[in-house]
Amino acid sequence: MDKEELQSHLQARYKDIKKPELKAVIRIQDEILSALRDHLRSVGFIEILAPIIGPVTDPGIRGASQVSFDYYGTQFKIMSSMILYKQMAGNSFDKVFALSPNIRLEPEVTRETGRHLSEFRQLDLEIANASYFDAMTIGEQMVTKVVERVKINCADDLEALHRDLKIPKPPFKKVTHNDAIELLMKKGFQLNKGEEIPWSAETALSKSFGDFLWLIDYPKTARGFYDREDEDRPGILRDFDLFYPEGYGKAISGGEREYEYEKVAGRILSSGELPEAYKWYLQMLKEGTTPSAGFGIGVERLTRYICGKEYIWEAVPFPKVPGIVSP
Ligand code: AMP
Ligand code: MG
Predict the structure, then answer these.
(1) Measured in Å, how far apart are the chain's first and last C-alpha atoms?
(2) What mean pLDDT is predicted for residues 2-9?
(3) Ligand 1 binding pocket, CB closer than 6 Å
(4) Of 263, 289, 298, nearest in space to 87 by CA
(5) Of 21, 39, 258, 285, which is the most buried if we count CB atoms within 10 A?
(6) Residue closest by Cα to atom 5 of ligand 1
């Protein structure tokens, strides 16, 4: 579909939402949401309410723009993710999660990836005093539980969507960012070791393994200032992404958090951000913050994978697609 076709298609969402196909997707999404929450509560998490506006938001959003607005004379942002607040909550609770909308004005080229929205929801969680390996264990168990439950409780809907969904088998394979780059370069991709992996290469990576795959140890230059640098391997972060099988791309992004004031302040400066904007956050770190690890998982991407949809806008009731004006 070209831009005009997609726009008029999405303008008429009130028609699509009555169709059996979208209704099946929305029922499956409901099951996904309750499975996520039930599972996390069963392993000791509590759900907290996320903010959707604030003086500053997640800067690590690879090429997307944030939305700013005037808040009683102060510039405010709409959350691109509530990551900074998770660290605040981690000072009070050992295991927290929040499900909240994120706004990222992604470049229009991302319409072609099939997995970018400009408004999406993320389930964000954080675990106090945990390593990134602990967080990956939580992540793979959670994803597996969700797939198991959908297969049991939504068998008819999956069948109506002709989706033959495999139950994942944790522990998932872990590959370092460095090894993944080498592997992709052998496949003919022109890549740079210090950067995030481009979307087309992410798709290739996600197709080439038969199951879910963890990519770990991203270079410092590829990520936001909050991913913790490994003390024994300067330049390497203790972080990860999870990739879906079958070419569906990235599912989860997370890692251990940098929590020491001096380090974070230095990384904010070297990333070209203004420390002044992160005033409350830096002050919190200065006064001492619990070390933690966590991740975010995009709900629409999870729905798209589970339902086997080509486009992410087929996996959300009221989609906002980059560059498209729709209700
Ligand atoms: P990130 O903060 O970019 O690492 O994103 C965290 C998670 O949110 C990703 O792993 C995705 O599942 C999801 N996500 C990020 N950007 C988008 C987007 N533009 N549209 C839909 N989901 C997204
Ligand atoms: Mg992130």
Answers:
(1) 18
(2) 97
(3) 61, 81, 104, 106, 116-117, 120, 122, 250-253, 296-298, 300-301
(4) 289
(5) 258
(6) 253
* Residue owning the nearest CA to atom 3 of ligand 1: 61
Ligand 1 center–CA 116 separation, angstroms:
8
Q: Catalogue the E-assigned strands of the chain.
A: 46-47, 53-54, 68-71, 74-78, 95-103, 119-128, 173-176, 213-216, 239-243, 250-256, 292-298
Full-model pTM: 0.97
The pLDDT of residue 192? 86
Atom 12 of ligand 1, residue of closest alpha carbon: 298
Residue 325 is assigned to a structural domain of this protein: no
* pLDDT tens per residue across span 28-75: 999 999 999 999 999 999 999 999 999 999 998 989 999 999 999 999
Residue 321 placed within a domain: no
Rounded CA-CA distance 306/139 in Å is 16
- Is residue 218 within 8 Å of residue 177, measured between CB atoms? yes
Could you list the residue range(s) of the whole structural domain that residue 186 is in? 3-314
Q: What CATH number did the domain enclosing 281 receive?
A: 3.30.930.10
| 14-23 contact pairs (CB < 8 A, 24+) | 14/327, 17/317, 20/160, 21/160, 21/161, 22/314, 22/317
